[in-house]
Amino acid sequence: MKKQTGKTRSPWAWVPTMYFAQGLPYVTVMTLAVVMFKDLGLDNNQIALYTSWLYLPWVIKPFWSPIIDLIKTKRMWVILMQTFVSVAFAGIAFSIPTTFFLQTTLAFFWLMAFSSATYDIAADGFYMLGLSEGDQALFVGIRNTAYRLATIFVEGGLVVLVGLMAKGSIIPGWEGNYVVSWSTCFFLLAAIFAGLTIWHSIGLPRPTSDTSRENVSFGQLMKDFIMTFVDFFKKNDIGLALFFILTYRLGESQLVKISIPFLKDATEVGGLGLGNEHIGMIKGTVGVIALLLGGILGGICISKGGLKKWILPMALAINLPDLLYVYLAYAQPDNLWAIIGCVAGEQLGYGFGFTAFTLYLVYVAQGAFKTAHYSIGTGLMALGMMIPGMFAGKIQMAMGYPMFFIFVCICTLPGILASILVMRRIPASFGIKLKEEK
Predict the structure, then answer these.
(1) Which helix (H) or strand (E) element contains residue 163?
(2) What CA dihedral angle connects 281, 283, 286 and 288, to 10 degrees?
């Protein structure tokens, strides 16, 4: 039987599901793990430290990307990594009720993180091979939307589901039983992801260009790979670029690890005392929608005025709303609408400001190795989130919530300074010209 190619398989049959599958494990590792560990009794220091380590595969994924390019096909890697993620979801579900749940769940989270980071490389490569240039442009919005729907499903829907189960609203007798509730949640995720894996093993096209580079030796590939790193760190103003990449989200890297524990902790210890059903609705649904709207608005602004004009306003937009958490920590409002407004405002600013960060990575990546250099930039971006986040819990527990959020606001200053410095080096047309070329 003749193998199907990208021309005979509608992109609607696989692009949305492939990127929905990309979002599920990433959001699970980065957000759902925080909520789960909080419910299962870990303190903020343990949560921030352990979950920050899970960023590591995204930091170092550029180092094994040549292997994915050299061995077998992108299609094979997509399906293999989805299989590993399915196993990881099931492993977490089985591990939660055990007495050694922390060690085993972290091991399976690590498998999920590594598989997800590898899947990112393979899926993005397959996207370019399986679609024509015109379809790539057409479906970029579809893939982003599918990814965000996965975010809402995990951060919103599943967190709400666990909250309702633990309240006994769905199954009487489960009141306060977070162990069974979370185990059920991960069994559900395992089933969904196994279904996606089966679908993609059948439904993904087989583009003729998706072949292994068997004619290229591993030694030659590694030589080329090393040259991309050398070329990256020889770029003009690379020191300033690294300062920007590592500090632009310095405050956010710590806020993101503590915001959910803060929302969940009892008012007696400085938190807001919200249940999972409220957190899923506020942060996982309203917050994600605000994040998406901020990103859309940011893209429109840069396309009209360019990155140089908007980089400082966007740096302020991503950082100044952190002050809303200072208000929440001191006032501890019991008005749900006030909390929703603050969380949505912070996420709207984050989505708006992150647009500049993404486009700056594109700016830095310009040159002969733009794809590899962009991958290096995203790895450094993950490093800038991982290291500060590791210590966020320890700092918060030492300071308390009000002083911690003030500390977070102070940590935003280097990123704002970096924005001022790099703004002077960016051509006025960059961003406008990029939009016009597309």
Answers:
(1) helix 159-166
(2) -130
Q: For residue 3, what pLDDT band results from cuts at 50, 70 and 90?
A: very low
So what's the pLDDT on residue 434?
A: 41
CA distance 228 to 369: 6
**pTM given for the model:** 0.86
pLDDT (0 to 100) of residue 208: 85
Nearest Cα to Cα of residue 28 among 158, 143, 146, 121: 158
**Residues 326, 342 contacting (CB under 8 angstroms):** no
| Predicted pLDDT at 216 | 64
Q: How far apart are CA 211 and CA 259, in angstroms?
A: 44
Residue spans of alpha helices (H) in 54-100: 56-60, 65-70, 74-95
pLDDT digits (tens, 9 = 90+) for 69-88: 777 888 999 999 999 999 99
Encoded amino acid at 223, one letter: K
Q: Please state, in angstroms and rounded to a whole number, the distance separating the CA atoms of residues 64 and 163.
A: 39
| Cβ atoms of residues 312 and 423 within 8 Å | yes
Q: What is the pLDDT of residue 298?
A: 87
Distances (CA, A) of 141 to 16, 122, 136, 163, 299: 10, 19, 9, 32, 12
Residues 159 and 174: their CA atoms lie apart, in Å, by 16
Q: Work out the average pLDDT over 133-149.
A: 78
One-letter identity of residue 399: M
Q: How far is CA 270 from CA 197, 347, 413, in A?
A: 43, 22, 25
pLDDT tens-place string over residues 359-381: 898 888 887 777 778 888 888 99
Give me the chain's average pLDDT, please. 89
Q: For the chain, what percentages of helix, strand and coil (3-state, to nearest 5) are there?
A: 80, 0, 20
Q: Which of 383, 384, 377, 382 is nearest to 361 (CA)?
A: 377
DSSP for residue 7: T
Q: Which amino acid is residue 272, in one-letter code?
A: L
Other beta carbons within 10 angstroms of residue 268's beta carbon come to 7
What confidence tier does 46 reach under pLDDT thresholds 50, 70, 90?
A: very high
Between CA 123 and CA 74 the distance in angstroms is 7
Is 131 exposed, middle or buried (CB count within 10 Å of its CB: 0-12, 13-18, 19+)? buried
